[in-house]
């Protein structure tokens, strides 16, 4: 059965605004982050997209975003969490190395890039294989979304080099155990003062 997976990045958080490394640490959505989630909800509503099931990273910022997107029950999944940056979490983003990060965070107690990418890919594969619905919502994080895109880039004709904005929507088609990225919806937040 062909399924559609809507992979959404959470809304802006206080750490995003302060240019802090988040990872497994957490910070709440800002007022702008809440408005971003409302814009994403409007996208789903306008396009008459409903979900048969919903999943979220266990991080508060992802759960709060999902709860704005839909009223339906959802499952919290640890495997959808952001990259673990170890002791560099909650520090300023200027400590990040140039991309690609590779295994930079491993000596600091964090995850290596390939291990992280595998975690996200395995988690989403397991969820979608077991799910009997056709339209599946998953709310996760910026690096998680990007690494999942990279994992399936060989099957997809859609790509984007620019950053994935908060509350962007990655629309994947899933069939025969293959994910294909069909569309990236990066919303216009000009009216929010960004």
Quick structural overview:
This protein is α/β, with parallel strands linked by helices.
List the helices and strands and how they pair.
Elements lengths: L2 E7 L4 H4 L13 H16 L6 E5 L2 H10 L5 E3 L35 H18 L4 E6 L1 H10 L17 E7 L2 E8 L9
Parallel strand pairs: 1-4, 2-3, 2-4
Antiparallel strand pairs: 1-5, 5-6
Helix pairs in contact: 2-3, 4-5
Describe this structure in words.
- With 194 residues, the protein is an alpha/beta fold.
- It has helices at 14-17, 31-46, 60-69, 113-130, 142-151; strands at residues 3-9, 53-57, 75-77, 135-140, 169-175, 178-185.
- A 6-stranded mixed sheet has the order 3-2-4-1-5-6.
- A hairpin with a 2-residue loop joins strand 5 and strand 6 (178-185).
- Helix 2 packs across helix 3 (60-69).
- The longest helix is centred in the middle third of the chain and has 18 residues, at 113-130.
- The chain is globular and about 45 Å long.
- The model has no long low-confidence stretch (mean pLDDT 95).
List its traits:
194 residues; alpha/beta; six-stranded mixed sheet; 5 helices; 30% helix; 19% strand; globular
Number of strands: 6
Reported for the largest beta sheet, the result is: 6 strands, mixed
> What is the strand arrangement across the widest sheet?
3-2-4-1-5-6
Distance between the termini: 40 Å
How much helical structure, as a percent, in the residues?
A: 25-40%
The best one-word shape is globular
- Structure classification: alpha/beta
**Number of helical segments?**
5
> Strand-and-helix sequence, N→C?
EHHEHEHEHEE
Cα-based radius of gyration, to the nearest Å: 16 Å
Low-confidence stretches: none
Portion in strands: 15-25%
């Amino acid at each position: 059965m062909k399924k559609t997976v809507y992979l959404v990045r959470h809304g802006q958080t206080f750490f995003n605004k302060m240019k802090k490394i988040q990872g497994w640490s957490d910070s709440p959505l800002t007022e702008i982050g809440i408005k971003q989630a409302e814009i994403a909800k409007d996208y789903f509503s306008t396009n008459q997209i409903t979900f048969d099931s919903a999943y979220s990273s266990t991080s508060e910022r992802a759960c709060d975003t999902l709860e704005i997107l839909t009223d339906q029950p959802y499952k919290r999944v640890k495997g959808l969490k952001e990259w673990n940056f170890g002791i560099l979490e909650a520090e300023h983003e200027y400590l990040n190395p140039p991309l690609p990060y590779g295994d930079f965070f491993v000596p600091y107690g964090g995850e290596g890039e390939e291990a992280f990418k595998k975690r996200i890919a395995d988690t989403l594969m397991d969820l979608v294989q077991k799910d009997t619905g056709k339209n599946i919502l998953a709310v996760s994080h910026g690096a998680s979304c990007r690494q999942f895109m990279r994992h399936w880039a060989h099957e997809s004709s859609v790509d984007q080099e620019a950053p994935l904005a908060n509350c962007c929507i990655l629309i994947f088609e899933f069939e025969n155990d293959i994910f294909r990225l069909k569309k990236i919806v990066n919303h216009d937040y000009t009216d929010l003062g960004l």
